[in-house]
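Interim report to the steering committee. The following record documents the input for LTA synthase family protein (637 residues).
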Amino acid sequence: MNQDKKQLLNKGWVFFAAAIVFLWAKTYYALQTAFTLDIENGIQQFILVITPISSILFFLGLSFFFSPKKRNKAFMTIYFLMSFVLYANVVYYRFFNDFITLPVLMQYKNFGDLGGSTKALTHPMDILYWIDVVILLVWVMRKKTRPAMEFRKRTIAMVYAAVLGFAAVNLSLAEVERPQLLVRTFDRAKLVKLLGIYNYHVYDSVMTAKTSSRRVFADSNELTEILNYVNSQQGKMGVHGKYFGKAKGKNVVLVSLESTQNFVMDRKLHGQEITPFLNDLADDSFYFDNFYHNTGQGKTSDAEFLIDNSLYGLPRGAVYTTNASNEYNATPEILKDNGYNPIVFHGNHDSFWNRDVMYQTLGYDKFYSKEEYHVTDENSVNYGLKDIPFFEQSMPMLNKEKQPYYAKFITMTNHYPYITNNKNMEMIEPANTGDGSVDRYFQTVRYEDESIKKFFKLMKENGQYKDTIFVLYGDHYGISENHNRAMSEILGKDIRPFEHVQLQKVPLIIHIPGMKGKDMHTVGGEIDLKPTILHLLGIDEKNDVQFGTDLFSKNREDFTILRDGSVVTDKYVYAAEGNKCYDKSTEKEIEAETCAPLKEKADKELDYSDKVVYGDLLRFMDSEQKEKADKEKEESK
Ligand code: GP9
Ligand code: MN
């Protein structure tokens, strides 16, 4: 190496500048190729180019404040962390179509458990995200090229002046593009698009700190306002529906159907039914064909939370992880007071989604998890135990349990990336859209259907079928927006925000042996299951903070709110993404004004629910109720 070049490589500012260019280039590459940011105009394009600069300068510049001896190490650590944050988002986005939030990151010890999914989510080209790290490492580690990172105070001041300058330009352009961006935070894609991926994480960290402080500052007055709202909603319901108490004293079985969307029901592929058993079961049950999932980032766990509490999951992270020690008034606890035995069966580790902790909080007495099952290479795939052996092995455990029980079975095989590892599992040919996830999805749904058939057979064999009611629900979507092209091929139409919202329908089948069912068209969601189940069992919870209503009640409004703020009624679909309003009967977009009251109600209700969870407000309910009961007791003496 000639002397000049060597000297150049030894210069701190050359190293620093190269690192900035590398990190900027790969961040820009990710913003352009890995995420769908919907760049609408030149200003947004310009913002995209400059957003990474201020944060890169800011964070890498922090190394200036370390002693010269430690400076290179500090610099590389920061560089590595930023690369990791970027790459983690790229991988996470491939499946979740969303950006990581701090609460989600903390629960992603789950990242490790993703196993098969993580493999399918990494691509060979991802090497581009790490090549620069290797180059810089070699650069600092080789004695010959090691840069001397010594900077004058004036240089450091200039770097930070540049940080401020870029940030100011970025923020003011962002404000022009999206007024109140920082106040209305529900749309993470917008935050990343206008603030950049690193600034987004700074913002997210501040939000996390802010929300954890909300519990500390919450007081019981907030609860009064929310109770008034909830009671006025419930008051509209009038007297009990005609199914009140119809399943009194029966066992309740809940089955969570992993990633199962409603579009597979009654649909044929290659001339074959995808869900033959569920289709037959639906004919003999109450089958709700306008039922939506209301979940957010917490996925399966959000669905579980919604169903047991009739409260919404959170806008960021999974409530199962962030608020597992709150006070709740959940179905298992209520049923326990009514003589029931609440239990859960699931073939994954007990700590996934923090279930082991949350189940205790919610009042489950027993959780049969992976440790209780016999799991081998043959009988497992993807996340673990396959659904058929899962149900088979669960039976002897169920048979030992005291009746009546409230038993939840969580299936797992139909999980992204929808893998089979044995020809016997493939009971239908894959679809042929060319999008592997979509094509395989039909096979794993078909397998799941077979497992449910098996489960019903076993329940009949053990004699418990006729004393049990069955509630089967799809937990959340399985096919994300990233697969719209293939999905439009399957459905034979374009996927506009209207169709996207409708695709959030999941099946709900309530099967009550001995009772003739029917198709139910009321618009509802997972939020409504707690009051629905309690009413079937003849249990009336007075003064409970719940946002759902009994799906069997004649007076209920056809209405459900999705976690992103979208709303569906019998007449309209409001798509929060893009603020679009549609008339359901014509499927045409209409003026946004028409949906404004729906949007307002959705925002209010989601905000109330978030207040309850963040503020842990139900703890006040308990103490107030206790005080009242104590007083009454005192008076009766
Ligand atoms: C894991 C299973 C899947 O135990 O419930 O969780 P998901 O990724 O669908 O939330
Ligand atoms: Mn799930």
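The mean pLDDT is 91. The committee is asked to note this result when reviewing the revised timeline.
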